[in-house]
Amino acid sequence: MEFRKIFDTIPEEFDKYRPRYSKELFDSLIDYAKIGPGKSVLEIGPGTGQATDPILDTGCDYNAIELGENLYAKMHEKYGKRPNFNIVNDDFITHDFGSEKYDMIYSAATIQWIPEDIAFSKTYSLLKEGGTLAMMLVSAEYRSTNEALCDDIQKVYDQYFKPEYEYQHRSFHYDNAPNVLAHGNCIIFKYTYVLYLAKK
């Protein structure tokens, strides 16, 4: 089992328990990037759609690329009948997008699974001039409410979670995006959610 595909082993549980993102975050993102009909969007690693509905509901040309076969199947089950929905089951790192260009590329706690140099350079090459790269994640502090429980959970995790291939990619710096996308970034905080925006 490749570390990047660990959630692909539990698509139903992932869909049920993975946190969603706030309406306010998507309102800000959609307004900033001017997403709607006639706009082309790519979501990297949608999982089972935790950040899909608000963008798909704008009527944009929604596209996604999902590495996990089971997560891909779950996305098809949920959204396959929507006329503006398109998804491929492949690795963003190696996938050939041909001549496709997007008005917005976004990732919800996924882009950090891609080596930083590839993540930023490839998204830059796939964005239209003036396009937006949006990266969102959940920011939370778990230890302080019950440190003993947190330690016990970590012991179980360390004992039983042993992926076949060690995860080599250890760090990802979201705020390096402006070094690649020339127009700087805007960081918006909404409750426990963080949204990083960079425009080409």
UniProtKB/TrEMBL annotation:
One GO MF term attached to the UniProt entry: RNA binding
Domain Ribosomal RNA adenine methylase transferase N-terminal as annotated: residue spans: 25-144
UniProt keywords, alphabetically: Methyltransferase, RNA-binding, S-adenosyl-L-methionine, Transferase
Source organism superkingdom: Bacteria
Keyword Ribosomal protein: no
Protein name in the entry: Methyltransferase domain-containing protein
Organism expressing this protein natively: Treponema bryantii
